[in-house]
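User: For a benchmark we're assembling, each entry needs the component sequences followed by a predicted structure for the full assembly. Here are entry 17's components. Please fill in the structure.
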Amino acid sequence: MISVIGDRINPGFKATRALVEGSDLAGLQALAAKQVEAGAVALDFTLGPRGKSDPAFLADAIRAVQNAVDAPLCFDYPDLAVQRACLEAYDPRRTPIINSLAETRWEMTELLKIRPCRTMVMASERLEGGAGRPNRSAGEIASTGKRCALRLMRENGLAAGDIIVDVSVSALAADTGGLNRAALEAIGRLGSDPELKGIHISGGLTNIGQQLPPKAADGSDLKRQLERAFVTVAVPLGFDTVLGTPWHSFEPLSEDNPVLVQFRHILTLSGTDVMRAVRKLYRPA
Amino acid sequence: MKENEQRLLDAIADMKEDEALALAKAMLDGGENPLRVLELCRNAMETVGKRFQDGEYFLPELILAGEMLENIGLMAKPLIQKGGAAAAKKHGRVLIGTVHGDLHDIGKNIVTFMLDINGYEVKDIGIDVPVERFLEEIRAFQPSVVGLSGFLTLAFESMKETIEAIARAGMRDKMKIMIGGGQVDETVCKYTGADAFGNNAMAAVTLCRGWIEA
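Assistant: Structure for entry 17:
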């Protein structure tokens, strides 16, 4: 059974942006409730730049949403000061999720001293020679995820179940570098690693269909089908948490589903051959 | 327009890659002016760009058309050098980089590619670029447009810092600044002090056309 962290409290969505710009706390509460009713086990929470520039509104919005739902909030700011403000505003009886920690922002583990938290850690970037580097290969993603998870357990005392490793899911329409293939291979490595038993493995699925048309060649909803195709491949490898829209289905597709068949084929390709194969998802033969 | 010229233009615009490359090769082998062939390719890219903006084409078509143009350019380049003809004049200079704290580069790389094949002289200064490096590169490269890329929400702050530093250095009026990345929108654009934002590679090309060629 896959868990969904609802991703809609994010001004990247136009409807949410209107709520944030209008300081519409009731609207944010309704959005939170809608996500939980649709099955979200936690709610990602970011107000975009306003979260940093308007700490009073940030605190008001957190309190409003926590009053509307019991599900924990997943504070989505890779910024120590904003995270600190979020944790201070949040109900002390609940356990939030910090999103997102990274090896390149390890100072964010200071937040774990403020109160017990679960953490989402980005495996898509690493620290090397004092500088941040993007991870491109399965080995880099898996080793970064493992290193971070072990540090969180050993140095910060987190239980494995309190760690969510985000492998990063990329837009398929731009994936000439095989990043989704690497992410899936990394999920397999992390998911089968006995030292990491109990951790959660996640990725944001909204990206995968970006810059593609709404309909697949067979008339089905291409973006939703791609999300499900990823889940179909990833869950058997150990992927257990989606950062996504809770009212989307994340049920696996049948093996003969044309989008899944083509998605598996795309995963074997590199360079602009990926683009040619992606076109077949939405251009009738 | 000659028949073979129209066929080349149509082949590129209709994503017939093999046909487009074969036609271009035949034209170049037959003595056609390589600069004329490249002009046709750019005209075809205009059609591809319009179809993208009209929602008929998507990112894969942009990238594949760009690759066709790039490959034909490689065929034409030695002939241009051999003939002593001047290379096509670049429209203007664009400096682009991912702001500090952010390591994402997929979108930036696509924008760089699209600007390049659309005739701009682009300097890509990489990822996680500190403010001071942006200032140094701007002083040295003298771009008409600066593109700041970032995917993470923390990038908005870095974009703001970078633009403020450009202003403090007295260079803000000498250039247009565009931002792009995962979640940029009007609000982020206003917050950072950029002139405009784009959510796809063609938007960057359109912005540069409006600014540089106006």
